[in-house]
Amino acid sequence: MSRVLSSLLVAPLTGHRSRSERSPAGLGRVGRVGQALVSRIDPATVLSVFVAVLMLLPSRYVVGPLGAAGTPAGLMAVACMLWYLSALITPHTTPVRGRQPLRTVVVFFVGSVLASYAAMQTEPRPALEINGADRGLILAAGWAGIALLAADGISRLERLEVLRRRLVTGGSIVAALGLVQFFSGIDIAGYLAVPGLTANSDSSSVLRRDEFNRPMATATHPIELGVVLTMLLPLALHGLLHARPGTVWRHRIQVFLLLATIPMTVSRSAILGVLVAAVVMVPVWSGKIRAVVLIVLGCGTVAMQAVVPGLMGTIRNLVTSIGSDSSTTARTDDYGAVLAAVTHRPWFGQGLGTYLPMTYRILDNQYLGSVVETGLVGLAALLALFAAGWLLARGARRASSNPEVRHLAQCFAATMAVAGFSFGTFDALSFPMVTNLTFLMLGCCAALWRLARENPTAGLSETTAAVPEPRFAEALGSLPRTPIQPRPEPLVEPRYWRETEPETEPEGVSEEPQRTHRATSRDRGHPAQWRRQATSRQRPGRHRKS
C-alpha cells in the first residue's frame, strides 16, 4: 500500500516513464494496480474530481479548525497548487513551456494579495482580521492553482471537452437539487453532510422571497447558485448544439434543468447574467438557432407562469425596480464607507479577507470589496483576470478554423462575461463555489487558447483532434502520445530504358547505344509520343494499315 501511495504522489510529477520502469519485476499485484492507476491520472481527471467535490459537497461544511478556508474543494485546490509547483522543480517535468499570458496575470493577482498582506502587518490589527488575512492567502493559493493547472495541464482538446461535459453534468445535478428544494422546501444539503466536517453557518439552505422558496442546493446562498448555473448555461448550450448521435436528449435535459432553476433562485444577478450571456452568444448563432431559442424561451416563460403563478411577475419587478428598491439603495450607501477606507490605504488595501461583515458592513459588490481589501493594485489585478479570460477565449476563436472549437471559445467568453458582471452585483470572493468555478473557467480559456494556436484545425473529438505535443501531458503526469514516424522508403534509381526495351534487338545494333539513343529521345520529345514509337519498334511483326 505504501508503494501505491508513493506512486500516486510522486509518479505524476516525474513525467513519462517506460513500460519497464512503470512495471518493475519486483512489484507486487497491488503495486502494479497502483502504477496502472497513476498512468491514467492527468490534470483533466484531477480537475474533474475537483468539480465533483465542488458541486456535490455542500460548501457550508468545512474542516472545523480551518474555518472558511477548510472546504473540501478549497483544500483540493491548494493541493493542485502544490502539485503544479512541484512540477516546476526540474526542466523535464515543468509545465511552463511555451507562451501563456495567464501565468503573468495570475502572478500579478497573487502578488497583489501578498502585497496587501504585507501592508496589513504594518499596523496592529485585531485577531479576527489577522485570521481573515491568513485565510485569504490560503484561498488565493488555491484559486491560482486551479487556474494554472487547467491552463498548462490540459493536454488535448478532447480532454477539455471531457471536462466541459463533467462541468455541465455537475451543474445539472445541482440544478435538480434546487428544483426539489424550491417545490418541497427540504434542506437537502443537511443530508449530504460528510462525516468529519462541520457546518460553517447555521442557516438553512432554503430561503424565502415574496412567498417563494429560494433554493441554494449545495451552494451557500441562492445568489451563488443562480450565478453558477448561469455561468454553466453557455457550456450546456454548446453541448446541445453540437451533440453527438444518441446524446441529444441528455443535453436537452441538462439545458432544461439549468433554465428552469435559474429563475427559481429569484436572483436578479442570475437573471441579468442570462441577458449578458445572450448578448455574447446570439451574434454568433445562425438565424435558425436564434428563432428556435426565441420560441423555446417564449414557451418556457408561459409554462413557468402556469406551473408557478406569480414567479415571473416577481422576477420582472426585480429587474424593473433597479435603482429604487432597498437592495439598490443599500449598495449605493456603501460608496461613502468605501471611499473613506480607500483614502486611508489606497494602493494595497488592508488585506484580503479582513473587511469582515460583523465588524464593518456587507459590500454587495466585489469590486468595491477588492479596492478596500487589496487596494487599487488588487482591483487592477482582478479586472486583469477577467480581461485575460475574455481575450484568451476570443483569441482561441480567431485562431481555430474548426466550427465546434470556435463556438466553444465563444461559450467560454460568455462565461467570463457573466462572471465579470456578477462580481459587480455581490461579494463573489466570499462564496467558494462561484469563485473556484471562475478561476477554473479562466484556466480553461487559457488552455483553449494554447491548444487552438498549436493546431488550428483540430477538433474536440478523438477522430478530428491532432496528436498533441507531449510536453504538457508529460509535465503533469499524463502519458504523452508520441506520433508514429513513417519509415522512409529506400531510394530506387529509375531505369527508364527497361520500360521500352524491345523484346528482340535489331541486328547490327549494340545494346548500349540503343539505350542511350532511347533515353535521349525521351529527353528530347514528348513522353507519350516516345512511348508510341518505342512500342512500334518492340513488335516488328505487326504493322499498321495505311
Question: What can you tell me about this protein's structure?
Answer:
- This protein is an all-alpha fold and 546 residues long.
- The chain has one domain (43-454).
- It is 62% helix and 2% strand.
- The chain contains 23 helices and 4 strands.
- The strands form 2 sheets. A two-stranded antiparallel ribbon has the order 1-2. The protein has a two-stranded antiparallel sheet with strand order 3-4.
- It holds the Pfam family Wzy_C.
- It is found in: Membrane.
Gyration radius over CA: 32 Å
Helix % is 55-70%
Mean pLDDT: 80
Count of folded domains: 1
Please write the string of helix (H) and strand (E) elements.
HHHHEHHHHEEEHHHHHHHHHHHHHHH
Kindly list the characteristics that best describe this protein:
globular, mainly alpha, single chain, two-stranded antiparallel sheet, 23 helices, 4 strands
Write the layout of secondary structure elements.
Blueprint: H1 2-10, H2 19-22, H3 29-39, H4 43-56, E1 61-62, H5 72-86, H6 101-120, H7 127-153, H8 157-184, E2 198-199, E3 206-209, E4 212-215, H9 222-241, H10 248-264, H11 268-281, H12 287-307, H13 311-320, H14 326-332, H15 334-344, H16 366-373, H17 375-399, H18 403-422, H19 432-454, H20 470-475, H21 496-499, H22 511-524, H23 527-538
Helix pairs in contact: 1-3, 4-5, 4-8, 5-7, 6-7, 6-17, 7-19, 8-9, 8-10, 9-10, 9-11, 9-18, 11-18, 15-16, 16-17, 17-18, 17-19, 18-19, 22-23
